[in-house]
Amino acid sequence: ADAAAWRWGRAGTTDRGGTCPGIWAVGMTKRKPLPDAEYLRSLFVYESDTGLLRWRIDRSNKRAGDIAGARRGEAGYLQVSIDNRLYRVHLVIWKMVTGEEPPNFIDHRDTKKWNNRWGNLRPATKSQNQANIGLTIRNKTGRKSVFWYKTYQKWAVQVWKDGRAYFGGYHVTAEAASEAADNLRYKLFGEFARAA
Question: Which of 18, 72, 94, 162 is the Cys-Cys partner for 102 at CB 3.0 to 4.6 Å?
């Protein structure tokens, strides 16, 4: 999954002259356009059944047939250098196959960012892309979209889509809440819904 990158600033000042206490988001920066599809096809061969991108020609320390790209950075996506600029491999593949600039978000169906088989890539909205993730590191219940509501002494369900929270009710057991969360996610996101 991927979108135009957020540009983050440091605590203290904003680009508008104000101050802020912590890290802040300035806004979306436009993703750099990919090279022309024909140029990409002249550089690479894409194996849609394996998801591998291979060099078509010899380049500096790479030989024709070598796998193009490596995992770089914390995000875990495969990236490849083209004319001294880094691009995410799944975006290069999208442009090679479709001939068009990739959409803002491309979802990896199985959530494995290195699995670039064509059947594993699909266009998505930001909400759909977020729906297709497992449990986050902040999750304390072990169940997606479920939390303990202390005031009512019950488990509550809340699912977010397009910046709006959808409430799935209060439940006596965590299992019932988890089932309600799964149903609500499926109703909101269909094939993009992922339980954990």
Answer: 94
Q: What is the pLDDT of residues 63-107, one digit of tens each?
A: 999 999 999 877 889 999 999 999 999 999 999 999 999 999 999
Q: Phi, psi (5° rounding) for residue 12?
A: 125, -60
CA nearest neighbour of 47 among 68, 26, 62, 61:
68
Query: What pLDDT, in 10s, does the model give residues 146-155?
Result: 999 999 999 9
Residue 32 burial (CB count, 10 A) = 12
Would you give the DSSP letter of residue 99? Answer: S
pTM for the full predicted model:
0.74
Do 37 and 94 meet the contact criterion of CB atoms below 8 Å apart? no
Q: Angle 4-1-54 (CA atoms, 0-180°, nearest 5)?
A: 100
In this structure, are residues 174 and 146 in contact, taking their beta carbons and an 8 Å threshold?
yes
Tell me the one-letter amino acid at 42: S
Containing 80, the helix (H) or strand (E) segment is strand 78-82
